[in-house]
Design brief:
The complex is a heterodimer of chains A (141) and B (147). Chain A is mainly alpha-helical and 141 residues long. Chain A contains 5 helices and 3 strands; from the N terminus they run E-H-E-E-H-H-H-H. Chain B is of the alpha+beta class. In chain B, a hairpin with a 3-residue loop joins strand 2 and strand 3. The chains are: A mainly alpha (141), B alpha+beta (147).
Chain lengths: 141, 147
Amino acid sequence: MKWVTWEQVGVDRMACAWLITKYIDRDAEFLFVPAGQKPLPEGAEPFDIPGVRLSHHRGHCTFHTMLREYDLRDPVLERIARVVDEADTVQDVMLEPAATGLDVICQGMRLVSPDDQVALNRGRLVYDALYAQFASEPTRV
Amino acid sequence: MEQPQGTSWVLLVYRVPREPTSSRATVWRKLKRLGALLLHDAVWVLPATPWTREQFQWLAVEIGELEGEAYLWESRLLLNGQEDALVRQFQARVDAAYQEILDGLEQDDADLVALSRKYQQVRAQDYFHSEVGLQVRERLMSARGGT
């Protein structure tokens, strides 16, 4: 299935792409359009674009929305959602010190990658690493 | 951030229902946190960057979810000198916040944890790279000790 999002992927879109490929659609194919471009390509599920189903809701990031929409229940994923929330949205309460660093790393990942597709591919390792580390720690969600 | 000629600005005008009051507070806190400036009690302004653009878009969507209504523009100032004046307003507010940190650092029992956290918050709103921010940074570094 095809998925579409805005170009210049960052922390939330990398997290979503990782989640999609790993838990929702193993053969996911990603398309990228310039920010603000309308209409969106037909036949592709849009994500992390303001106004679409899979985007920020109630102040939470798109990754958080995707866990709800696809009914993914996993305390480790919940914690990653909180990290991405703190990295990508305006929050008063910050509980995850990893958030700021993750945001910077994901931005830098795009800078060292020739295009968005490569950035998403490389970002997977970051989220695999985050998942593995959180999974190895005692759960405190 | 490059500024002098031709900074683009993102402008937000919104309303949310009076009740519940928590909706108004949520939006207000986010605008404050973004460091947006309220002009004449009417329009919220931020310099346009990919980040501020995106944050304002998300906020506009959230306002809709709170049963409110939001309009969002990107624009340029047309009159000479107004841009500098606007930039100065942003700087004045950030400088004042930095000054509070400097004052806090003068105290004998300065809470370095709280002050360095506050510094990070102010820095996130420092869109025009205040000189006072550099002073704060140096003072915090030396307060940390070591070399």
